[in-house]
Amino acid sequence: MQLRKFVIGLLICISASAKAQLSGGLESNAAFYIDDAKIKLEQIEARQRIRSNNYLRLNYKLKNFTAGVQVESYEPKALLNYSPRLNKTNFGNYYLKYKNDKLRLETTLGHFYEQFGNGLVLRTWEDRQLGIANSIAGVRVKYAPLEAINFTALYGKQRNGLGFDFTEGTITGLNADVQLSSLLKIKKSKFGIGLSYVNRNQQKQVYESLNKNTFVTSLRGDFNLGGFTADAEYAFKSKEALVEFNTVRPSFQFDGDAYLLNLGYAKNGFGLSANFRRLENFGFYSQTQLAGNVYNQAILNYLPALTKQYDYSLTNIYVYAAQPNLSFEPSRNKAGEIGVQLGLFYQFKKETPLGGKYGTYVALNYAQWYGLKGKYDAAQRKYAANKFAFGQKYYHDASVEVRKKWNKKSSSVFTYLNQFYNARYVEEATGQVNTNTVVFDNTLRLKNSKSIRLELQHQWANAGFKNWVAAQVEYNFNSTWSLFTQDLYNYGNTDTAQKLHYYNMGTTFNKGAYQVQTSYGRQRGGLICVGGVCRFVPQSAGFNVSLNYSF
User: Fold this and answer.
1) Which of 122, 103, 121 is nearest to 112 (CA)?
2) What does residue 181 show for φ and ψ, rounded to 5 degrees?
3) φ/ψ of residue 319, rounded to 5
4) pLDDT at 5 over 70
5) CA dist list (Å): 26 to 3, 53, 71, 389, 509
6) What is the DSSP string of 485-507?
7) What Rg, from alpha-carbon coordinates, does the chain have?
8) Rounded distance, CA 205 to CA 170, Å?
9) What is the mean pLDDT of the chain?
10) Residue-wise DSSP of 412-448
11) Of 183, 233, 271, 422, which residue is 20 to 30 A from 158 by alpha carbon distance?
């Protein structure tokens, strides 16, 4: 509380200067939920049917100082499936930053977002669509004694992401990045190393037998030569108590680790990427009791699903979420995940047989993920995982995407996706699903900056929701106004009551710094994912209005 008053007071002093540069933005998302003929929201009282999430961000810059504040308002309640503790209006973030490029020094007091390396040991970030806002409030110092050497030190408490308060853990972090090639004056290639250490101190442990400190540490290296890039990272987590069904089990404590390898090559319209990752008991939270919670509350590290992020509604019905955590259940034991993702793209040149007049872009992608093979004893809460052996299959996808411009007015995107989805392990539900999905997306440019886009999709599935069909039409009057209508129909569902049309229609307005979107329709329930991080949303129906303004 004292830190907030101090930082906000300094912000006001800086903003009072006529020379201060002001920037910021306003975002408002509101919904009026209704009961229609098929979807009922019996758990919501009538007075709670109108809800909104609102964010006002202000930043002031004066010479070497920058101060900022974000006010958040969830009135009268947060949108569906956001934390019920997100309510009323309060300061979400506030900070004061001093940056001196000559001294290569940056100091931040207040809230900040930070990432060490690939994020295996630390990444805090904000994603309003997912309801994640897990900044650290405290102090952070960045210093570069040489251009090739960078140090970061931080200390503070993490915003829990479910409200405006903080979790119980106190976070200390140290990071160093060294560009060895620059120090050695090597110009043909670039390579360096990085070291990270993050400690969580939780003084108010539920059980005296629990260690108050849990730490993660990592070592990584990167290499770049011509069009080839590579980076590798290994991370270790010290022993931490098992958490089952929101209950801490102090008698069972386990350490964990993570391996990550990324390879890439790109040159002359050709690209190739490969990712390998192995996670064992590697979820890291700023409060022990919150491990594995459904809202991604108090999460300190960044473990996105290493699968391709698809753009279309039916390709995102069976999405894979990373499985880093340890859990014991008879016939469904999990200690983490191991898998790979491979990607290839090629741009066929213009005026070639496959390129045509405007060229053709083709992308192939394959991802496959498994549990860790090993010996598990659910009754005794014991396990021993093999280091690089593949266990129960969790997921795979294989896709091809072709982008083609036919002439000055018409262009198309064709996507084919094959998936295997083991719901028993990924969602801790039942069943295994095999799907095939096709998408055709065509845009036709008309006169006077008008255009029309038609999107057609179909999914065949042997289980789960079974077959879907979807269509969307978008008409752009100009760069400012557009209309859209879409429908997802689960015609193959074996439950007649669930053979629903998830329709949606609306309009979008874009003008300068303003964007407004209004819509009416139904929201399909299930996983929603952004950047490989997912959360569940319930199905709903109603009116929606979104406003964005930046300056």
Assistant:
1) 122
2) -60, -35
3) -100, 145
4) no
5) 25, 11, 10, 49, 16
6) EEEEE-TT-SSGGG--EEEEEEE
7) 25
8) 12
9) 92
10) EEEEEEEEEEEHHHHTSSS-EEEEEEEEEEEEEE-ST
11) 233
Nearest to 10 by CA among 67, 58, 57, 63: 67
Q: 87-92: long-range contacts at Cβ-Cβ below 8 A with a sequence spacing of 24 or more?
A: 87/163, 90/164, 91/4, 91/8, 91/164, 92/55, 92/133, 92/159, 92/164
Q: What is the pTM of this model?
A: 0.92
What length is written for the chain?
551
Q: How far is CA 496 from CA 24, 38, 417, 423, 491, in A?
A: 49, 11, 27, 22, 9
With b for 16 or more beta-carbon neighbours within 10 A and e for fewer, the 165-193 pattern comes to ebbbbbbbbbbebbbbbbeeeeeeeebbe
SS3 for 173-234 is EEEEEECHHHHCCCCCEEEEEEEEEEEEECCCCCCCCCCCEEEEEEEEEEEEECCEEEEEEE
End-to-end Cα separation, the chain, in angstroms: 29
Token pair 């930043």 is at which residue? Answer: 59
8, pLDDT greater than 70: no
Number of Cα atoms under 13 Å in the Cβ half of residue 481: 2
* Structure-token pair, residue 543: 């009116």
Condensed to tens digits (0 to 9), the pLDDT of residues 357-404 reads 999 999 999 999 999 999 999 999 999 999 999 999 999 999 999 999
pLDDT tens profile 469-500? 999 999 999 989 999 999 999 999 999 989 99
Residue 379 CB neighbours (<10 A): 7
